[in-house]
Known about the structure:
By secondary structure, this protein is α/β, with parallel strands linked by helices. It has one domain: Rossmann fold, CATH 3.40.50.300. The chain is built from seven helices and ten strands. The strands form two sheets. The chain has a six-stranded mixed sheet with strand order 6-7-8-3-9-10, sandwiched between helices. Helix 3 crosses helix 4 and helix 3 (101-111) runs parallel beside helix 5. The longest helix is centred in the last third of the chain and has 17 residues, at 173-189. The structure holds adenosine-5'-diphosphate (ADP) and magnesium ion. Residues 45-46, 165 line the site of magnesium ion.
Amino acid sequence: MIRLSGITKDFPSPSGERLRVLEGVDLELAEGGSLAIQGPSGSGKSTLLGILAGLEQPTSGSVEISGTNLGSLSERALAQFRARNQGFVFQAFHLLQHFSALQNVAIGAEIAGLKEPMLSAREALARVDLADRMHHLPGQLSGGECQRVAIARATVARPSVLLCDEPTGSLDPSNATRVFELLMDLHKDLGTTLVLVTHDPSLSARMDRRMRLERGRVVEG
Length: 221
Ligand SMILES: Nc1ncnc2c1ncn2[C@@H]1O[C@H](COP(=O)(O)OP(=O)(O)O)[C@@H](O)[C@H]1O
Ligand SMILES: [Mg+2]
């Protein structure tokens, strides 16, 4: 179970006032379920996903994932929890440019504490159909291939939760479809809970649930 209770988030604005970006968000999502987060640009979707991922602290409220309250963990324990239980896929891939596809995924496997990071990385790349591109650098791969490497990195430790922030947002339609189908396959095959921010109604229609944010509030779902 993923449980968000009363999440608010303030950022300091340049003029010194605080800017409230999330206004008290509650959410419960069953293990193995899927959720689309929709809403206009600036509504707080990425901020909410970052809080769910433990990448950002909420100003108030709690985040519980599989019985663990993220706010109760030390920085080190949180980093460990994230590496083992959560995968994150960004719109802009966020791969290390000077490392091969295999090294990018193996670093994720090492951080997660897997015993055989290289072997696990090879398996994860095979699952995304990139066994023949392992030694390419990100600059030598297409956008769709880069995103598949990023998905391999995010899923190498078979996390219980996969969080994706507009994962198809910078891809052409055919690569977007391929990446989305891959995420759905991994969600089903690995039993991974999937939370996906997307503007594409045809993708959100395939999720179990949809939630819409507007100005930091849940207006639907
Ligand atoms: N680090 C930050 N510092 C200040 N304001 C931020 C920061 N991150 C996001 N914001 C503001 O929070 C609001 C929500 O941003 P975001 O969560 O990225 O929205 P979305 O992903 O829905 O487009 C925006 O108005 C944005 O400018
Ligand atoms: Mg965003």
